[in-house]
Amino acid sequence: MTALTLVAHALTPALRGLVLGGDAEPDPASVDAARELKLTADASYAGPEPAAVRTAEALGLSPIVDPALRDREYGEWTGRDLESLLGAEPGPVSAWLERPHTATPGGETENDVLARAADWLGDLTARHEDRSTVVAVVHPAVVRAIVLYVLDAPAESLRHVNVRPLATVALSHHAGTWSLTFG
After folding, report:
1. Distance (Å, rounded) from C-alpha 1 to C-alpha 178?
2. What letter would DSSP give residue 176?
3. DSSP code of 49?
4. Dist CA 122 CA 127 (whole Å)
5. What separation in angstroms does the CA of 89 have from each of 66, 101, 116, 148?
6. What is the DSSP string of 71-133?
7. What is each CA distance from 145 to 75, 140, 141, 158, 168, in whole angstroms?
8. What letter does residue 69 receive in the DSSP assignment?
9. In what side-by-side order are the strands of the sheet with 43-46?
10. Phi, psi of 110 (to 5 degrees)
11. Are 60 and 31 in contact (CB under 8 A)?
């Protein structure tokens, strides 16, 4: 069995302001709060965002930075806040928000993120076939995608899963199947 704990990275100004994508540094207070989490791991991974790496380091981990664990690619909308986008481009933004199979201009769909997360889990399973304990510190959008994949839920469900900074989700892999683990 492989145990995987997902950790949503520390709060960033982008998360606070509903800014799409970007590589914002994490809030120092949120990084300090991460130090209070008590996690151990045989292996650790982080998305490439500075907030993911800094959060992992605050947890006392030396993560392998894996580009497959990156936030969703927002293309031309990267760095823009949702409120101003809705004011400037209400039709395309509404379509994107309502239909998970719609990509931002030059970006990824929610299904693209789910497929990338599923591929990463498959690779992780191949690397850690033994009784490993793994921690992955990632953007909240990646936590949501992995949870939906494990539950075999459709991409339309992504917006119904709220993941706050520093939230943890426990998963386990046994006999070829990933499961959510409670308790």
Report:
1. 10
2. T
3. S
4. 9
5. 33, 18, 28, 29
6. PPP-GGGTT-BHHHHHHH-HHHHHHHHH-TTPPPTTS--HHHHHHHHHHHHHHHHHH--SS-E
7. 19, 9, 6, 7, 14
8. G
9. 64-65, 43-46, 133-138, 2-8, 168-174, 177-180
10. -65, -35
11. no
Non-local CB neighbours of 33 within 8 Å, separated by 6+ positions: 10, 166
| Tens-digit pLDDT profile for residues 49-63 | 999 999 999 999 999
What residue type is assigned to position 22 of the chain?
A: G
Structure tokens at 40: 């151990």
Nearest residue to 159 via CA among 78, 88, 96: 96
Q: At residue 181, what are phi and psi to the nearest 5 degrees? A: -125, 120
The one-letter amino acid at 73: E
At 175, is the pLDDT very low, low, confident or very high (cuts 50, 70, 90)?
A: confident
Q: Are 48 and 94 in contact (CB under 8 A)?
A: no
